[in-house]
Design a protein that fits this description.
Elements (H helix, E strand, L loop, with lengths): L1 H13 E2 L8 E4 L2 E7 L5 E7 L2 E8 L17 E3 L4 H4 L22 E6 L5 E7 L18 E7 L5 E9 L3 E10 L2 E2 L18 E9 L2 E11 L6 E5 L13 E6 L8 E6 L6 H13 L9
Antiparallel strand pairs: 1-6, 2-9, 3-4, 4-5, 5-6, 7-8, 8-9, 10-11, 11-12, 11-15, 13-14, 13-16, 16-17
Length: 295
């Protein structure tokens, strides 16, 4: 009886139910990542992490639904036992890959991707989501590269970012995050901006060759706004930290549902230009978002 009970517990634990993880988080610091997809709509990920070879089976989700209070966002089911939890067998050993070469849109933070037999796309991306704000030096836990899996058909989420100035002196950005014509946003978050539902998304903003030092540094992260999917951010001082003005900027946001993570990058604008700023101010007003004000 003890042996039977133990086996049942292991089988149940091998399959991870859908969670709040978007896009969706698979593992940290994965190396040698390989992606395979079969005709059953399942993906098999093979990689090494924490000194071990891992086989992860994923299925059960595609694209995303609009933000709603009535249900959770779509998410994969994940079997970290390579199919043992789902099929009670070493499924990964007989998994038949039917994926063809990727011919979809360019993705930021690209690791691997392919076109499934049904015409849908699967992709893996990896980036450093946990970096500390304001250019601080990350510790080991903050430096991890997080591996995300996505599965989609049709158009990708639209991540629009533009630059202007705040008070004619500080670099400033504004934009929107939408999917299938709907704004991407959540309903609940902590005071620090951590989403508390499956819909909320943070924009992770980095600055290059800034006052923080050479190379890319995390400037800050901030939520897309409820109901509009808009956001805006000024490069101001933060306590004892200097203004994070850099030569270039980039931003990453985790896709809604299991769509890919979106990426943007641009040179800084340079010196103040009134004509450019007036156009930007009109665009900011047109966002219809009370939290984003032209200045």
């Amino acid at each position: 009886m003890r042996r039977t009970f133990f086996v049942l517990v292991v089988l149940a634990a091998a399959v991870v139910a859908p969670t709040a993880s978007p896009s969706q988080l698979i593992d940290r610091n994965a190396q040698g990542v390989k992606l395979a997809v079969n005709t059953k709509g399942e993906a098999l990920l093979t990689y090494r992490a924490a000194g071990k070879t891992k086989h992860v089976l994923a299925w059960g989700a595609v694209n995303a639904i609009p933000s709603t209070r009535s249900r959770a966002q779509v998410a994969f089911k994940l079997d970290y036992a390579g199919g043992w939890g789902k099929y009670h067998a070493d499924y990964w050993k007989t998994f038949k890959n039917g994926c063809s070469a990727y011919d979809g849109p360019t993705l930021g933070w690209f690791v691997a991707a392919c076109k499934a037999p049904d015409g849908s796309y699967w992709a893996l991306q990896a980036w450093q989501k946990m970096l500390p704000n304001y250019g601080l030096t990350p510790n080991a836990a903050q430096s991890v590269w997080m591996l995300h899996l996505s599965h989609w058909t049709g158009e990708l989420p639209e991540f629009t970012v533009k630059l202007d100035w705040a008070y004619r002196s500080f670099d400033h950005l504004y934009g929107t995050f939408t999917y299938a014509g709907n704004p991407v946003f959540g309903y609940k978050s902590t005071p620090a901006g951590v989403p508390l539902d499956t819909f909320g998304r943070n924009v992770y903003l980095d600055t290059f060759n800034s006052t923080y030092g050479a190379g890319w540094k995390r400037e800050n992260s901030f939520l897309t706004h409820t109901n509009t999917g808009a956001f805006c951010y000024g490069f101001f001082t933060h306590g004892s930290r200097p203004v994070g003005k850099g030569e270039r900027y980039r931003a990453t946001v985790i896709g809604p549902g299991v769509t890919p993570d979106a990426f943007w990058q641009s040179d800084a604008l340079g010196g103040y230009d009134k004509s450019v700023d007036l156009v930007a101010n009109d665009e900011i007003r047109s966002l219809g978002d009370a939290q984003c004000k032209a200045n």
